[in-house]
Amino acid sequence: MNFLFSRRNYSYTPLPSTHTTVLGYWPSRRWIVLSVVFLCALTGAIWGGLESLKSPIYSPQKNYQAMTQPPLVYAGGRISPREKRAIVSTLYSDSYAVGVAVLGHSVRRANTTARLILPYLEGHISGEALCMVRAVGWQPIPVPRIDPPHNGKGIYHRFVDQYTKLNIWALDKMNIEQAIYLDADTLVRRNFDELFDLPFNFAAVPDIYGDKRGFTVNFNAGVLVLRPSSEVLDVMKEKIETADFPLDQAEQSFLNLFFSANALRLPYEYNANLAIKKSSPTMWEGMKEEIRVVHYTLVKPFLDESLASSKILTEEELRKVMDSAAKKKSSMFAEEVQWWRDAYHKMMDDEEATKHCHGVMS
């Protein structure tokens, strides 16, 4: 020991017997520090190795696959006339009928110049639900189901019908040149007709996730601006089965891959996903007055998710669902739930016809 530390003139003094360890003495401070450093380095190396074994976050840009996408800019070079514009949503289950009705009413209150077209899953929607959506101005059109790839393997159960959304690209057969798609769990707060003037063939709002991905360049498929084209739909249906993309988010993942190189990104105000408020409350407050469309991703004021059935809720059941939604996430979204509640009551006051839809068979 004296040889090892001769340059520093260290001396060894045994510790008192009351501090003796199983080794007979406490290690010197130097060895404690070196041991801690070594253990930290070892832990870091092990953690880094485990992280490297994890699959990297999927990126549709890094995994780009050529699929004969439409041109970036509309080849027609002109703004579509009002009669060839449409606001579009979809309906796959009666449980979303009230949500779609409130959405349609909110679109009309925003004084949009477009038609309201509602593709619905043929054979899955009741006469009562169709009566309700017609009462607020939707034009329901039956569409066939587009099956998920790989027989639905790897797809969340609630997303299995979502590929049917792709039928909106066939609206050119109804003489629609420009469409704005809105998910059934959205609500219009302000007019957004300016989106019809975009020269691009496809536009959407960037997505936000609750995990380490956070704010991303991938877009959310709850609000889409598109130029319908049956030819594009044919390409999509052809590529769904062979394209390589994560299946868990269904058609949203596929559309991110399909339009990965030529999707225009819109401001968050056109798809105000509640996940934005959860991730950045300050940003939400800053953009709140400009919100055109709010997207109820984290709470749904019209849906009782504890029910296995797809029935339309009664007014009393709906009231309880709204009350429950306002209290979720420590009441974080109470204000936004109140927006939806106000829109629902306004619809019920304005649209007497919806009150007479109960029991309608066709």
From TrEMBL:
Query: What Gene3D superfamilies does this protein's entry cite?
Result: Spore Coat Polysaccharide Biosynthesis Protein SpsA, Chain A
**Where exactly are the transmembrane stretches of this chain?**
31-50
Q: Which InterPro entries match?
A: Glyco_trans_8, GNT1/Glycosyltrans_8, Nucleotide-diphossugar_trans
**UniProtKB keywords:** Membrane, Transferase, Transmembrane, Transmembrane helix
Q: Which domain of life is it from?
A: Eukaryota
GO MF annotation list: glycosyltransferase activity
In terms of Pfam families, this protein maps to: Glyco_transf_8 (PF01501)
- Protein name from the UniProt record: Nucleotide-diphospho-sugar transferase
State the organism of origin. Collybia nuda
